[in-house]
C-alpha cells in the first residue's frame, strides 16, 4: 500500500511540530505556491505588515473618532469614500484593507487543519465559526479551503458614522473549497482535487489590535 501525504511543520517552543496533514489531492496546491524558507523571506507578509504599521502611525489624532470623518453629502462609490477617508486616516486606504484581507485569508487556511490562534487574532468568534463550519452549529461538517489566493477585492460598503467603523468587502478567491463530514471525511459539496473560483463577502471592523486594526467580524 502506498501513501502520499503533504505535511506542514512549524516551529513551536523550540521544536518542530506537525501543523497540518493533507492527502495527495488536497495538498497539490503546495506545488504551485511560492516557497517561503523562513518568515523573513515571506515578502508579501512583510510588505503587508509594514504597510499596516505605517497606516496605524498615521491614524486619527487622539480625541477624534471615525465619525468625525463622516460627510453630509457625498457623491461616489464605497471605494472612492475609502480613498477620501484615507487622506485623514491612513487605515482606510484600500491597500491597507487588502493587506488585512490577505492576512485573514492566510489565517483561515492555516486554521482548517492547524492552529486557530492566528485566525482568532484577526476575526471574531462568530466569524471564526462561519469560516470553519459554514454556519453549522452542530459542527458535524467543516468548510475546507486549500491554497486560497486573493484575486480581487472590492469595497462594497463603508460606515464611518458608527463606532467602530466598518467596511464590507467582496472578494474573489481561487483554490480548493469544499464541505466535508468531520466523522467520515466524505465530501458533501465541492471537490478536493478541482480548484475553483469562489466569492466571499466579509464585514471588517476597525477595532482590532494595533498590528491588525481591521478585524473580520462577519462572513456574510
**CATH-defined architecture:** Roll
* Structural class designation: alpha+beta
| Beta-strand share of residues | 25-35%
Assembly state:
single chain
Count the beta strands.
Answer: 7
Distance between the termini: 43 Å
Q: How many individual domains?
A: 1
Sheet of most strands: 5 strands, antiparallel
- Top-tier CATH class: Alpha Beta
State the shape: globular
User: Considering DSSP H and I runs of 4 or more, what fraction of the residues is helical?
Assistant: 25-40%
Question: Mind telling me the C-alpha Rg?
Answer: 19 Å
**Could you tell me the mean pLDDT?**
78
The CATH topology name reads Nuclear Transport Factor 2, Chain: A
By DSSP (H or I, 4+ residues per run), the number of helices equals 6
Low-pLDDT ranges:
66-75
Query: What is the element string, with H for helices and E for strands?
Result: EEHHHHHHEEEEE
List the helices and strands and how they pair.
Layout: E1 5-12, E2 15-23, H1 24-27, H2 43-57, H3 78-86, H4 94-113, H5 117-122, H6 125-133, E3 141-159, E4 166-181, E5 187-190, E6 196-205, E7 215-219
Antiparallel strand pairs: 1-2, 3-4, 4-5, 4-6, 6-7
Structure description:
This protein is of the alpha+beta class. The protein has one domain: Nuclear Transport Factor 2, Chain: A (Roll). Helices cover 29% and strands 32% of the residues. It has helices at 24-27, 43-57, 78-86, 94-113, 117-122, 125-133, and strands spanning 5-12, 15-23, 141-159, 166-181, 187-190, 196-205, 215-219. Strands 3, 4, 5, 6 and 7 form a five-stranded antiparallel sheet that branches. Strands 1-2 form a two-stranded antiparallel sheet. A hairpin with a 6-residue loop joins strand 3 and strand 4 (166-181). Helix 2 (43-57) crosses helix 4 (94-113).
Amino acid at each position: 500500500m502506498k501513501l502520499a501525504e503533504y505535511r506542514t511543520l512549524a516551529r513551536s517552543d523550540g521544536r518542530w511540530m506537525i501543523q497540518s496533514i493533507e492527502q495527495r489531492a488536497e495538498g497539490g496546491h503546495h506545488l504551485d505556491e511560492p516557497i517561503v524558507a523562513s518568515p523573513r523571506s515571506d515578502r508579501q507578509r512583510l510588505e503587508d505588515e509594514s504597510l499596516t504599521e505605517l497606516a496605524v502611525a498615521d491614524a486619527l489624532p487622539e480625541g477624534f473618532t471615525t465619525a468625525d470623518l463622516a460627510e453630509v453629502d457625498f457623491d461616489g462609490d464605497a471605494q472612492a469614500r475609502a480613498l477620501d477617508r484615507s487622506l485623514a486616516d491612513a487605515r482606510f486606504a484600500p491597500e491597507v484593507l487588502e493587506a488585512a484581507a490577505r492576512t485573514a485569508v492566510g489565517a483561515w487556511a492555516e486554521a482548517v487543519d492547524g492552529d486557530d490562534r492566528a485566525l482568532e487574532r484577526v476575526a471574531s468568534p462568530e466569524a471564526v465559526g462561519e469560516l470553519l463550519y459554514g454556519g453549522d452549529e452542530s459542527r458535524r461538517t467543516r468548510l475546507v479551503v486549500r491554497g486560497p489566493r486573493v484575486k480581487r477585492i472590492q469595497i462594497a460598503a463603508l460606515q464611518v458614522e458608527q463606532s467602530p467603523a466598518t467596511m464590507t468587502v467582496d472578494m474573489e478567491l481561487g483554490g480548493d473549497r469544499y464541505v466535508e463530514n468531520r466523522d467520515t471525511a466524505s465530501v458533501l459539496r465541492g471537490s478536493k482535487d478541482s480548484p475553483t473560483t469562489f466569492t466571499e463577502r466579509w464585514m471588517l471592523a476597525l477595532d482590532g489590535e494595533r498590528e491588525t486594526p481591521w478585524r473580520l467580524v462577519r462572513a456574510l
